[in-house]
Write a structure and sequence with these properties.
Blueprint lengths: L6 E7 L6 H11 L17 H6 L6 E8 L5 E8 L7 H9 L3 E7 L6 H12 L3 E7 L8 H12 L7 E2 L8 H11 L12 E10 L3 E10 L2 E2 L3 E4 L4 E4 L2 E6 L1 E4 L2 E2 L4 E5 L13 E4 L18 E7 L5 H14 L4 E7 L3 E8 L2 H15 L3 E3 L3 E2 L1 E5 L4 E4 L11 E16 L3 H10 L3 E8 L2 E9 H15 L5 E12 L1 E8 L2 E2 L5 E4 H18 L7 E7 L2 E8 L15 H21 L6 H8 L4
Parallel strand pairs: 1-3, 1-4, 4-5, 5-6
Antiparallel strand pairs: 2-3, 7-8, 7-16, 8-15, 9-14, 10-11, 10-16, 12-13, 12-15, 17-19, 17-20, 17-21, 18-19, 22-23, 22-24, 24-26, 24-27, 25-26, 28-29, 28-30, 28-31, 31-32
Helix pairs in contact: 7-8, 11-13
Length: about 600
């Protein structure tokens, strides 16, 4: 057990690509935690998809032993957190397990939208913050200007910010000294009953559920019988250890330490993040204030392209849900796509990552329906319903009003592109709340409907600003608006997978774009096919796909015109009958392309 005064627990927070994972690599390398021959870039990003996209998805932890310049040994527990807004819940819970943060800012880019979001989370958790200016080896680096920007925008003193190049290793020793001398030691009492916080849990196919814990008071020992306070389950610890970054067993963990335990737990659902762990006998009675559970924001349907793979998809989704507490799912069926799942995600990036993992790790080809958000329907009899899927919309005569989720979006953008951003937000029914300047960059705050952001807002934002804008958002509650369900009919049959919620003012434009697109995507049949977009019983847009024609009069040469007329009438009657009984096949590609609707 380590003396409390010699423990430092900290996390690294920053915007995407400002160098968190690289800084973590250098700290691990400088202290000799991992032998040089085993070092690789982004040591803590263990998933293939993290390494490929160059982003951190799961918060990872590592224990570093460091001998300071005053000759004393310290134990540093580092948690490397994601920078993406979709994985913000990973950041918030990592913050509660530590006492300080290293705020990494790219000295060539300055403060970005998610730098702000993550710093505010650290300040909410009462962290001591050490600012670090990274990438000083680049010619475009301007440390003084960025230090002023940190003081202006965030309001923390950056006069003694550490100047670092995580790539070349400059400033790493100074960073380690700052961690030891500027961050506070944890508090705790080894004589009290055991009280530990459950920071994270994931499923390992050999060990069962692995639980990451931060000990607050008391001592946790191997073979202890422990209780999870939220659901009252009791388990016996069979393995206790710390991450260096590989698993290293220890006999006990004391106050202030971060480590892991396994206890033959079968399901991750039994281990809720933010739960309090104590001993079965003589444990604590007061639980720690837990985390808010992650609330899914975006919903979409996942269907296998080959319907025989449905059972494989079910297994894949269940295994992923074991590791990812914020991912929720339920079964659904669709007339066009067969059996599948309605899944909830924290955002579009989260959706993409889950979809990529299913396709890559389990070899299943997927169709994703249009992402939608949760609407609140207030009925005329006073009840309230949550609507996840536009296809389930009840008859509008029973609905009093509909509320949609709104977000507060913060966009940081160079001055030259400000007009394009304001126009983009205005087009998406945004309401401007604030506009301030930090140097040559504008910070715009908008109130936007989440429904408009879910489709392709992020892609449009990046394209109108040539990639220079950064974007972050928080949910800002629900607001009533004039929303309607737009359904698409092909040959007078409604197609569930293509129905969507739209604002009444935009419905006609959206409907016209959708039917024009479908006209190009659906192959021609022997009979003509009307494609319509409708709101309730009113058709707002229509295109007709003409029929393939066979020339039935080819064998008539000369002779009486009535013979040709008779053959043409016969053909006409046949086509009419065919249209009545004919079935239109919409290919899978048509669904995917139709849903990728642009503006």
């Amino acid at each position: 057990m380590t003396d409390l005064a010699h423990i430092r627990n900290f996390s690294i927070v920053a915007h995407i690509d400002h160098g968190k994972s690289t800084l973590a690599d250098r700290l691990i390398q400088e202290t000799g935690t991992v032998a040089d021959r085993d070092m690789k870039a982004q040591m803590l990003d263990s998933m293939d998809i993290e390494r490929e996209r160059g982003i951190t998805i799961k918060a990872q932890t590592v224990r570093i032993d460091y001998k300071a310049q005053n000759g004393e040994m310290y134990v540093l527990n580092l948690i490397d957190t994601p920078g993406h807004v979709d994985f913000g819940y990973e950041v918030s819970r990592s913050m509660r397990a530590v006492e300080g943060s290293l705020l990494v800012v790219d000295s060539t880019q300055g403060v970005e939208a998610q730098t702000l979001a993550n710093v505010y989370q650290a300040l909410d958790a009462d962290h001591e913050i050490v600012p670090i200016l990274n990438k000083i080896d680049l010619p475009a680096s301007d440390c003084d200007a960025v230090a002023h920007q940190i003081e202006d925008v965030i309001g923390i003193d950056a006069s003694d910010a550490i100047r670092v190049s995580a790539k070349t290793g400059v400033g790493i020793k100074e960073t380690l000294e700052a961690i030891v001398h500027r961050l506070p030691a944890p508090k705790g009492d080894a004589t009290k009953p055991l009280k530990a916080m459950l920071v994270d849990s994931w499923y390992d196919s050999y060990l069962g559920v692995v639980v990451l814990v931060r000990i607050i008071d008391g001592i946790m020992r191997k073979n202890d019988r422990i209780m999870f306070m939220q659901n009252g389950t009791v388990h016996q610890i069979d393995r206790l250890g710390v991450f260096k970054p590989g698993m290293m067993p220890v006999e006990e963990l004391g106050p202030g330490e971060i480590g892991f335990l396994t206890a033959q737990i079968k399901q991750v659902r039994d281990t809720r993040v933010g739960d309090t762990i104590t001993t079965e006998k003589k444990g604590v009675t007061q639980a720690l204030p837990g985390f808010k559970p992650a609330v899914p924001v975006v919903f979409c349907g996942l269907f296998p392209v080959d319907s025989s793979e449905f059972e494989d998809l079910r297994d894949a989704i269940e295994k992923l849900a074991l590791n990812d507490a914020s991912f929720s799912f339920e079964m659904e069926t669709s007339a066009a796509l067969g059996f599948g799942f309605r899944c909830g995600f924290l955002g579009l990036l989260h959706l993409e990552v889950i979809r990529d993992r299913i396709e890559r790790e389990y070899n299943i080809d997927l169709i994703t329906t249009a992402p939608s958000v949760v609407y609140h329907l207030y009925m005329k009899d006073g009840t309230q319903i949550d609507l996840h899927n536009p296809a389930d919309m009840p008859d509008l005569t029973y609905v009093d009003h509909i509320e949609e989720p709104r977000i507060k979006a913060t966009i940081l953008v160079p001055d030259d592109y400000l007009g394009d951003i304001l126009k983009l937000c205005q087009d998406r029914r945004g309401v401007q709340l604030d506009l301030t300047y930090a140097g040559s960059r504008a910070m715009v705050v908008y109130d936007l409907p989440l429904n408009e952001v879910v489709f392709d807002f992020y892609d449009r934002l990046k394209s109108v600003t040539k990639g220079y804008a950064s974007f972050d958002y928080q949910l800002a509650g629900y607001q009533e608006d004039n929303l309607v369900k737009m359904s698409v009919l092909v040959n007078d049959e409604p197609v569930d997978a293509l129905s969507m919620m739209v604002h009444r003012d935009r419905a006609e434009m959206r409907g016209r774009a959708m039917v024009e697109k479908l006209k190009d995507l659906i192959p021609r049949h022997m009979f003509k096919i009307p494609i319509q977009a409708a709101i309730g019983g009113k058709v707002i847009a229509r295109e007709t796909l003409s029929a393939l024609r066979k020339d039935v009069t080819a064998k008539c040469y000369g002779g009486d015109a009535s013979r040709k007329r008779k053959l043409l009438d016969k053909q006409k009657a046949g086509k009419k009958k065919m249209r009545q009984f004919g079935k239109v096949d919409i290919p899978q590609e048509a669904f995917i392309s139709a849903l990728k609707m642009d503006g």
